[in-house]
């Protein structure tokens, strides 16, 4: 992973350098949450017994390191992202999300296809996941949350720094 693992700007910069074309960012803004939800639904089907605790799923277990990493990068936004993941887990536990396995795989696949179209047609750059799969899968939802926060005027200094980083990259 680039720079310091817990350097928020370095982590967001890694992802931003692959996602600065507005249509591609819009595609990702829709389909990354879709992929997150469908991944969670699929992994929620995998039961895990941990320390004798019943009723856990792979989604519950994987949410913990995501939340910890996001909070380590930036506590306020990490707590917001963690709340979203907790709500997603609750929605799956309470079966507020009603999807079949076939629906989950279909939507998951279509969302990934849309992502690749965004890169090939609009960004004209290969996806970040081809350079760092783990970082891309972990950072993508957090990056999209930041893109939304930037739209609402939050973290304006960080937003400007990332824009400057992209301009510098594109000038090279």
From TrEMBL:
<dbReference type="GO" id="GO:0005783">
    <property type="term" value="C:endoplasmic reticulum"/>
</dbReference>
<dbReference type="InterPro" id="IPR009305">
    <property type="entry name" value="Mpo1-like"/>
</dbReference>
<dbReference type="GO" id="GO:0016020">
    <property type="term" value="C:membrane"/>
</dbReference>
<dbReference type="GO" id="GO:0046521">
    <property type="term" value="P:sphingoid catabolic process"/>
</dbReference>
<dbReference type="Pfam" id="PF06127">
    <property type="entry name" value="Mpo1-like"/>
</dbReference>
<keyword id="KW-0812">Transmembrane</keyword>
<feature type="transmembrane region" description="Helical">
    <location>
        <begin position="23"/>
        <end position="43"/>
    </location>
</feature>
<keyword id="KW-0472">Membrane</keyword>
<keyword id="KW-1133">Transmembrane helix</keyword>
<feature type="transmembrane region" description="Helical">
    <location>
        <begin position="63"/>
        <end position="92"/>
    </location>
</feature>
<feature type="transmembrane region" description="Helical">
    <location>
        <begin position="134"/>
        <end position="155"/>
    </location>
</feature>
<protein>
    <submittedName>
        <fullName>Mpo1 protein</fullName>
    </submittedName>
</protein>
């Amino acid at each position: 992973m680039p720079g310091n693992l817990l350097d928020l700007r370095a982590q967001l910069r890694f992802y931003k350098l692959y996602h600065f074309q507005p249509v591609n960012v819009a595609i990702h803004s829709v389909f990354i949450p879709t992929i997150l939800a469908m991944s969670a639904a699929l992994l929620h089907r995998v039961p895990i017994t941990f320390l004798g605790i019943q009723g856990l799923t792979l989604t519950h277990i994987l949410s913990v390191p995501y939340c910890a990493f996001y909070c380590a990068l930036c506590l306020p936004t990490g707590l917001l992202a963690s709340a979203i993941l907790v709500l997603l887990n609750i929605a799956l536990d309470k079966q507020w999300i009603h999807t079949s396995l076939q629906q989950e795989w279909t939507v998951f696949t279509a969302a990934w296809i849309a992502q690749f179209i965004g890169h090939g047609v609009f960004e004209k750059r290969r996806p970040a996941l081809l350079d760092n799969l783990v970082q891309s899968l972990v950072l993508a939802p957090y990056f999209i949350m930041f893109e939304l926060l930037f739209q609402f005027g939050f973290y304006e200094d960080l937003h400007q720094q990332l824009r400057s980083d992209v301009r510098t990259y594109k000038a090279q």
